[in-house]
Amino acid sequence: MKKSLQHVFIIGAKGIGNYGGYETFLQKLIEYHRDNKKIQYHIACKANGKGFMDERKLPEAKTIDDKHFTYYNAECFKIAVPEKLGSAQAIYYDLASLRECIRQCKERNIKNPIIYILACRIGPFMGYYEKQVHKLGGKIYVNPDGHEWKRAKWSAPVRQYWKTSEAGMVKHADLLICDSINIEKYIQEEYAKYNPKTTFIAYGSDIYPSKLADDDQVFVNWLNEKQLSTNDYYLVVGRFVPENNFETMIREFMKSSSKKDFAIITTQDDNFLAELDKKLHFREDKRIKFVGTVYNQELLKKIRENAYGYFHGHSVGGTNPSLLEALGSTKLNLLLNVGFNKEVGKDAALYWSKRNGNLAKLIDRADKMTHSDLEEFGQKAKERIKLAYSWQFIADKYEDVFDI
Prior knowledge:
This protein is an alpha/beta fold. Helix content is 40%, strand content 18%. The chain is built from 14 helices and 15 strands. The strands form two sheets. It has a nine-stranded mixed β-sheet with strand order 3-4-5-2-1-6-7-8-9, covered by helices on one side. Helix 10 packs across helix 13. The longest helix has 19 residues, at 89-107. The radius of gyration is 21 Å and the shape is globular.
């Protein structure tokens, strides 16, 4: 017999619906489970600093006080992080969130909680906390994300910490929920000595068109402001970090003969931007357009729908939300040829390598595609989402693993 109410605490994301994979996942999971009376979500959110949670930007969120708000059937609590900690902020944030989850369970006499930790940042401490959670009759679930230890932004000692931490998280998890088949295979092979229990649940997306009409002023004004034209720009959406290969995409686009624009929707990092311009001098190419961030999801979907093609250069991580959203909205998708991306796109996309000139040739080829070619790719892409990545399908899978 299933439990009447399952409490699920989720930590590791900066917030709900913020600009990031975990944040998007949380928003969709809660939205799809909003009428489910068998589950009570408790979500840790970042109170301050980069990427902090501002629930005023989240439709349907209701502020209780400066540290608490609700979002459908989720009780959300904010954790303040000392900004002087630098790169250790993420570790502090996860540990403080985990301690708060345990405190709430004890104070409110919550039995058999599931504590779902997104990413592998606190492995060295998990032996201690595993005992505390198990004393409550609870379980620890972990989403290992991608290979954090491979990210270019980290120094060698930090990378070593992430690798050690990943091992600790795998060792002490009751279940690892992998968002990619490639990641699940890696966990099983790399940490066979721990005999990890794993399952595969991808991120989700949808194939519903934007609610905005083609002539909606919100969309038209955005195009005019950014000096873009419908179906006459390539697009990329993602965090502005080296492992997402902005350098390769910009360099190769500059080499191409395309008459279209390249619109880049990304987070701001002035230092990385200056570094790239020093290498590439992209500001001299009028086609390259950094167009800021877009948090209006309907507008973002409309921008995707009206792009000629979408670039995806993510090289680290599992199933990436921005890729799924592109497949659900953009007809032509040009993906970096790595296992994670091929697993998702299959024959519904074209693939490029980081080899000099490879992407530039693909862009020139893509520019010459016929209308029927583009339509065929669009149909295949939507079919991929419908069959394997719909949010309803993903939400149902989580009901199974939460046993509700």
